[in-house]
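User: Predict structure, ligand nicotinamide-adenine-dinucleotide.
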Amino acid sequence: MVSRVIPVDPFDLIIFGGTGDLARRKILPALFRRYCSGQMPAEARIIGAARAEHSTAGYREFVAEAITEFSDGRSCDDGTLDEFLTCIDYVQIDARGEGGWSELVNKLTQDRARAFYFSVGPGLFGDLAERIRTHGLATDNSRIVVEKPFGHDLETARSLNATLAAHFKESQIYRIDHYLGKETVQNLMAVRFGNVLFEPLWNSQYVDHIQITVAETVGVGGRGDYYDSSGAMRDMVQNHLMQLLCLIAMEPPAKFDPDAVRDEKLKVIRALEPVLPYHIVRGQYDAQQGDTDAHPSYREAVDNPRSTTESYVALKMEISNWRWSGTPFYLRTGKRLAAQSSVINVVFKEAPHSIFGPDAGRHANVLTIRLQPNDGITLRVTIKEPGPGGMRLVDVPLDMTFADALGPEGEYPPDAYERLIMDVMRGDQTLFMRGDEVEAAWAWTDPIIEGWETRGEVPKPYASGSAGPDEANLLLSRDKRKWKGINP
Ligand code: NAD
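Assistant: Predicted complex:
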């Protein structure tokens, strides 16, 4: 199947933090791939801006190296890379100083969409927003892109929102959650709202429970300092898992329009029940047996022998509305787990009465939405086991792996950053978090974290390469349910 690529209009994109890790690994390779696909026009300008001194030629060399290293074998020929590099420019700017801004002004083209990507720590967002405004760089057709973490709690998120709102309208602010840019996440909406099959069953009458798992095999790596002051709840649940939960649970919006979608997501967050302490399990990984040097324990990795920060969290959540009352959502995420796997399982109820007798066993349909790896959707249905010997039932998958279903183009679904940056340039905010959504998510998260702190809770240890602490199994076994396996 040949995909239709609709080119975006020529734009100016300024990447503050253009020499940083995120720019190198994600933003620049994503732009290159959109250039190769024909979506980013040759007239577009990408201007790196950071504190380091670079000539334009020197920065282009930096960009070429980043693309060669991080393009996942999706690069096109050398000639195309050279063409792409002619779109790249650089200006040395300190977000807290005045130098470099007039040079940046001169590099921009009037009357085209302009985006300022804040790929720097949140401590600089206010300085950047203010200087963009005072140096006259913000036009009506300008927008800013801000990275996670968006706040550390409700208070800091509110203050960050207020800082940005002092200089930009909400319709100009794009808060990135790269989970929302994943192809399968958008497919979740297509499956729910583009088919008649699922929506009538998408409620507590037919859905027994829903599991959302985001498992990583990596540890905290070089992010120890940041991670130890954050933990899995802030780093993953408050944003990524919450966004997935919203897309699964929200009511159908009247149209696929940014505010209509985000209004429905917000209603889900506001309908969340507070989580009871015994409905949450926190964990912290141990060193890997037999390989403690390469894979140290969490506490060693963050160099804090007394750390009580969680690298794993599992919780049972309940949504108080007509659709979901009585259907629990079980969420879990963690580092150094058995496999890299992001999966949503919608587990339907068993048929109300089995006509096949006790030997047929118990069966329930499961809709599995795999975000990574091998993105795709599987529906497990119950059929007769082939062969003579009576009516034995077996569950088999109806499988839609996108790479198989969509042909060569499907083999390389665009990386989330490709999609999201193009959406920014098109001015489409559907897949970006609105300020009130972020604040509502923190308002739900804060009491949970405060509870841990007040009670002096210490995370349960779990073995590296496992499915997490054993206590997490209790969350489901108490309800006579089981986690699905964490498989690659
Ligand atoms: P980094 O430390 O690698 O890079 C920071 C960049 O900011 C550098 O280009 C640096 O020159 C620039 N910078 C720092 N101070 C500056 C100043 N005063 N004026 C102008 N430029 C300045 O950081 P990173 O990993 O690229 O992360 C950038 C942001 O993106 C952070 O907010 C981070 O939390 C977020 N983020 C990063 C990742 C990732 O994978 N790296 C993922 C998600 C979110």
